[in-house]
Amino acid sequence: MKRLLFALPLVVAIIIGGFAIWGLSGGRDPSALPSVFISQPVPQLSLGPIEGVNSPGLTTDDIKAMQGIKLLNIFASWCGPCRAEHPNLERLAREEGVTLVGVNYKDKPEAAAKWLAELGNPYAAIGSDYSGRAGIDLGISGVPETFIIDADGIIRHRFAGPLVGDGLRRFMETLNEVRK
Amino acid sequence: MIRIWIMTLVLLASPAAAVEPDEVLSDPILEERARAISSKVRCVVCQNEPIDNSNAGVARDLRLLIRERLVAGDSDQEIFDFLVLRYGDFVLFKPPFKPSTYALWLGPFVILLIGGGAVVVSLARRPKGPAASAADLSVEEETELAKLMQKDTPQ
Asked: Which of B44, B86, B90 minimises the CB distance to A137?
């Protein structure tokens, strides 16, 4: 019994060290927040189209009516990382057999229209969220963010940040899991 | 004249705060409640700052939203519930007491109890009475000690 007690500091050190190694490994982002919407239906959205853009607006019922997996991307013309991920979104919409819908977050309609005309418009529907209220209803902390919505209209994943490089690779892994 | 101008500017200057003049409600009681609520809500961008003094865009939107709902007659709890529904318990600086947070709230007391218990047990086990003194050395030990003392004494 006494001898076991001597091993106690070592056991405590191994437990604490184990936690430290777990926390530092595996590409975990400690500032990433879990979304409360995972495994929940898409919150009620009712967004009109962007003025001057030839895409319909976006409501939750629209999303539910769409077949297969949907990606909901929140973007803005004033957001640099959005520009960086834009070619990847176009590729996803073209090649991955998913429906891409957008929420244009706190953006002037003219600026958004110009942006889409310049870079291309991969979205099946775009809701204009000029006030940012829909962004709050979706619990976003900034742009860009992308949600994976499964065929039943349930949110399966939230990705904060641009879909480029390593982040895109992880996103694709999750997307393939949702596909199964 | 210039002095008056400087004085006016000095008087106009106020400490920097994130709450902007256009956000402030005309009703001082509601405004006070809004300040109290927003000091307890974490900014989701800067994470360690309350939205009350964060300059992030989302923080401003949330401050405006809190005020809007206060004016509409929501209770403080309803506003907290509204935010938790969208951002999770994480937005509250003071997490709620519920099964998933029992470890968080009770952990320190459990550790204190274990540590306190260990101290009590080890104190109780310590032999009572005065510790053995030098006078208890045996005859052999005394001679040994004397020899050593002799050896070490500088010549």
From this structure: B86
Contact list in B for residue A141 (CB cut-off 8 A) is 44-45, 58
Rounded Cα distance, B143 and B147, in Å: 6
Domains within chain A, CATH numbers bracketed: 36-179 (3.40.30.10)
Of B82, B80, B74, the closest CA to residue B94 belongs to B80
Q: Does A30 touch chain B (CB under 8 A)?
A: no
**A to B CB pairs, distance under 8 Å:** 40
β-sheet bridge partners, residue A47: A58
Residue ranges of A 91-120 with Cβ closer than 8 A to chain B: 106
- The CATH class, in words, for B17-92 is mainly alpha
ipTM above 0.85, yes or no: no
Rounded Cα distance, A65 and B75, in Å: 36
Residues 157-176 of A with CB under 8 A from B: none
* Amino acid A180: pLDDT: 85
Question: How many alpha carbons lie under 13 Å from residue A22 in its C-beta half-sphere?
Answer: 6
pLDDT tens per residue, chain B (155 residues)?
777 777 776 666 654 567 887 888 889 999 999 999 999 999 988 878 999 988 888 899 999 999 999 999 999 999 999 999 999 888 999 988 989 889 989 999 999 999 999 999 999 988 776 665 556 778 888 888 888 888 876 65
* Beta strands A125-129 and A70-75, pairing class: unpaired
A58, A102 in Cβ contact below 8 A? yes
